[in-house]
Specification:
heterodimer, A: 5 helices, about 30% strand, B: mainly beta
Amino acid sequence: MTLSETLSQVELFEGLEPEELDQIASICEERTLETGHVVAKQGDVGDELFLIWEGLVEVVHEETPEDPAPRTVVNLGQGQVFGEMALVDYGPRSATVRVISETVTLQAIPRDAFLEMCNSHNHLGYVVMRNMAADLSFKLRHQHLIGR
Amino acid sequence: MAMIYKVSYVVQGGDHPGAIVNEDEKPELGKKVMLGSNEFEVVEIVDLMPARGDFSFLHVTVKAIEH
């Protein structure tokens, strides 16, 4: 299976045409990381979006003066996206993301190339941003269910 | 293309944060699932949002399996 065909199985790219998936594939960079590796650090500047190809990561809210106990808020596995908040709002990373499976394989997408692609290809940009909003909504619903 | 199930797993009791994972097969009541290195049993399945394209969105409650 090609990278473009595999990308079609990621919700973020649901609804894109094959040639649009090829464009996304052209800016992806695959990384394989071992357990304990910190992919993103809370408070750091973030300029990449990540897709989880295989494996599991934990998303941790680090201690702050207001919240002195670090806590894992969710684990993310195959097909999930993280790093999207810093990508769209240019703010610092909102949480630390750490590999908790033996290894994890990611596709990293650089922000500038990604946003340029969304700006210059209206259909691609609309679909990806719609799906990103749906993914954030899903994560919010998950958090609501955790607190039931 | 076969359906992809995007699942929000919530763990009953304890402090496990749950997980969000894509599954190739629809979870079933009573079946066992692995979240990382931990094994759980499915006790509830609910449609979280309407399906879109090849994606179905589920909320699944699980409980830890005592060994």
